[in-house]
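Subject: design request, 89 residues
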């Protein structure tokens, strides 16, 4: 880490040269279409998870057991309780 003014200036020059000499590698570029699809999918998954939480909260409020909820979400009742219990309480 530079400590003196001269070292700081030299370091700044080195960084500037690295920036000016930088050539992006096309292999590192992200496809905008793929990025947009991923973002949309993540948002859809987030919205779906909110709907699941709302449904589980409504089910618990009507007295549905964790075992029954587990059947719907594809787990055991205990796994459903562990995953969603503190989120819907």
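Subject: RE: design request

Done. Sequence follows.
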């Amino acid at each position: 880490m530079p400590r003196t003014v001269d070292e700081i200036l030299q370091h700044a020059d080195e960084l500037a040269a690295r920036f000016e000499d930088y050539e992006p590698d096309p292999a590192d570029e992200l496809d905008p279409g793929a990025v947009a699809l991923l973002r949309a999918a993540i948002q859809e998954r987030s919205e779906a998870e909110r709907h699941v939480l709302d449904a589980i909260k409504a089910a618990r409020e009507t007295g549905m057991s964790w075992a029954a909820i587990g059947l719907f979400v594809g787990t055991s009742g205990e796994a459903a309780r562990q995953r969603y219990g503190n989120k819907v309480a």
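The chain has a mean pLDDT of 91.
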